[in-house]
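Anyone up for a design puzzle?
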């Protein structure tokens, strides 16, 4: 006695529904992967390319009512902007905050700025630099 085969003949009825679903999932995965890669590239470019001004505190000196901050700023030659500095007391209270503008047409600015404080500050920290 012979047994009947449960498989369909090859090529007679087209692809099975499982093969079609697998193909659709692969296409969807490739499309979503390409979109994700494009988004990562877009945000990375804007993070790096749009950083037109940056700064760092080289040193600072405190007194009873001011903090002298030696600030080094790197920017595009035509970029205009400001950097925000602050000082905190020993107990962590903020005793001074100010924005300092940088409109010079140079790529590097090395400047000592005075941040007025309400009491003796123990820090001179850069919160960030921004373009106009």
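Challenge accepted. My sequence:
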């Amino acid at each position: 006695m012979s047994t009947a085969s449960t498989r369909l003949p090859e090529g007679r009825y087209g692809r099975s529904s499982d093969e079609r679903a697998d193909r659709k999932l692969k296409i969807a995965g490739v499309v979503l992967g390409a979109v994700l890669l494009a988004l990562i590239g877009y945000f990375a470019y804007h993070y790096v390319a749009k950083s037109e001004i940056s700064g760092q505190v080289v040193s600072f000196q405190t007194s009873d009512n001011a903090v002298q901050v030696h600030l080094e700023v790197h920017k595009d030659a035509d970029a205009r902007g400001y950097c925000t500095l602050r000082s905190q007391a020993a107990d962590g209270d903020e005793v001074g905050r100010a924005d300092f503008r940088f409109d010079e047409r140079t790529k590097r600015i090395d400047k000592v700025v005075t941040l007025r404080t309400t009491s003796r500050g123990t820090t001179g920290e850069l919160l960030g630099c921004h373009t106009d």
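A detail worth pointing out: The chain has one helix and six strands.
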